[in-house]
Amino acid sequence: MQMIKLLSKILAVIIVLMILPLQTDANEGKIQDQIKVGIRFGESATPVVSLASPNGLALGYYEGDNFKGIMQFFEDIIVRKDDYFINVNGSFITYDFDSQSGSGNKNIEGPVHIQIGNEFSNQQEAENFLNELPNMMEHPYLAYENGWHVWVGCYTSVSEAEETSKNIKLLIQNADLRIITKDDKRVQVLNKYGKVSFMYNTDDVVYAFKAIPQESSNGIIQLDGKSFRGSIIIHRYIGSDLTVINRLDIEEYLYGVVPREMSGDWPIEAQKAQAVAARSYAVVNLNRHENYGFDVCASSHCQVYGGYNSEKSRSTMAVDETRGALLTYDGKVVTAFYHSNSGGHTEDSENVWSNPVGYLRGVDDPYSIGAPNDTWVKVYTKQEIEGVLASNGLSVGTLQNIVVEERSKNSRVLKLAFYGTSGSEILEKGKIRSMFGNNSIKSTWFDMGTNGERNANIMVLYDLNQPAEAIDMNSKYILTAQGLKEFEVANKYVSNGKEYKLIASNANANVDQYTFTGKGWGHGLGMSQWGAKKMAEDGFNYEQILTHYYTGTNIK
Asked: What confidence tens digit (pLDDT) does each residue in 439-497 have?
């Protein structure tokens, strides 16, 4: 079963890489001006959020790129899913309601409501009716669910709502009342005191909250204390908490991406290169998370986005001075992959994934040498490696040896074999890093070493008329340009003029520690960010930086 789970994970990764768009036609028409960024969704969705802005908030919806406001709130608001909550010192916490133990607790609110009157033909009619209602123990509010309504209360059960209905009928003669039961797509909007101001169903309309602009705030909206440009969309999906989306101009989105993907203090030309790469990546990946209602997420799965709080003046300048610029190959906008440090040479796409991509060819990169993580070392005990394999559903018994079976022409490991008492396992390309952790094995450009001795017999042919002789190369020396050097057995290759083959070696029983000695950090595709920094310091402009790392590309 563990093996099935592992294979499922690996297959999922392969499928994602296969379907990830690599290019989009730059001439397909006007590229959209706005982008929707997933801030919270899926497992990161939360049941309650707070929204604030110095001049108040507008609630509305979009027609194309135009925001249509329907109501305003001149104070901070709380938005929560329509469910069971308990009020603990002014904070709302989801509550696992039990009708036996929870009944009668006035601090518990639920997803059952009372509708007063029938459906209204428009918002104004509903507001007029609401304003004419007599004073009640509970404050009624507007609701939109398949039309405009007036509701009251947040009850924990139908019976509680029915009991309250009796009191309402005493206040409003001939009142037409209806009990509204729980709906997993309903959202509540509360004032800062916790009283419902509005309720809506996300099946009907995609509502957004936008700051009412004033000179001091520039239309900035706060989500749980964190500031964002544009608007905040709050949506619900069946079985989920609140999906929170930041919709904003794509250039303003880049203000919050560039300084999170590259230091905001780095040279302006490096940041311009990052801005064009990030813009191109975003354009190609629009609708990547369409199933959640947004384009890209705010994490490294897409591009790291920090909102207004992360903006830096130099990064903003880099975005503005490259406004609209896109990286293209054969007339199509490219997915401009980038990484931290190449270690001295970038890689071909097929040596990271499976398919060759014309603009992702390995290039010599001396600019990355000398920067952080151009070299690194990671040491594992034999038991730790056995544990990594086991946690991923793999087992070779007692580990006996690790062998680099194949490398790319750019020296990155394509196949890494683990040999043990009960069999072997081979990891390929990016699976090596994903299994051990991208922060541990920082790239696939590495050599292997151990703390034990290795025996290597190399067959040497002295005479064509005589059989080859086996020579144990342990403790042997070879003559190099730097003089005599002791021959190290681990991970040596020989060439037959067409390909490189590993010199086989067998570890003895004393090996209990394996050392990965590597170069660079990241997948090695496209632009090295540290390399871009060095190129900018050396006087290259952003176009030269981009065309160096992305072969055959142009700036459009």
From this structure: 999 999 999 998 864 545 565 656 666 655 556 665 566 767 666 666 665 556 566 55
- Closest by Cα among 368, 369, 362, 363 to 347: 362
Q: Would the pLDDT of 19 be above 50?
A: no
Lowest mean pLDDT among 5-19, 114-128, 184-198: 5-19
* CA nearest to 326, candidates 545, 17, 551, 31: 31
Q: Token pair 């490219």 is at which residue? A: 334
Structure token digits, residue 128 = 């007029």
pLDDT (tens digit, 9 = 90+) per residue, 223-264?
999 999 999 999 998 888 999 999 999 999 999 999 999 999
Neighbouring CB atoms inside 10 A of 58's CB total: 21
For residue 148, what are the β-bridge partners? Answer: 120, 144
Dist CA 51 CA 157 (whole Å): 29
Tens of pLDDT, residues 69-92: 999 999 999 999 999 999 887 788
**Residue whose tokens read 């025996």:** 455
Return the bridge partners of 112, or none: 155
- Find the farthest-apart pair of alpha carbons in the chain and give their distance in angstroms, rounded: 117
Whether residue 215 is predicted with pLDDT greater than 70 in this model: the reply is no
Name the amino acid, one letter, at 74: F
pTM, two decimal places: 0.82
Q: Are 52 and 76 in contact (CB under 8 A)?
A: yes
d(CA 491, CA 117): 80
Alpha carbon 4 to chain centroid, angstroms: 25
Sign, CA torsion 492/495/500/504: negative
Beta bridge partners of 330: none
**Using alpha carbons only, what angle is made at residue 338 by residues 336 and 342, rounded to the nearest 5 degrees?**
140
Picking from 440, 424, 423, 444, the residue whose alpha carbon sits closest to that of residue 432 is 444
Dihedral sign for Cα 182, 188, 194, 195, please: negative
160 beta partners: none
Give all strands (DSSP E) within 457-512, no chain letters. Answer: 457-460, 469-472, 477-480, 483-486, 493-495, 500-502, 506-507
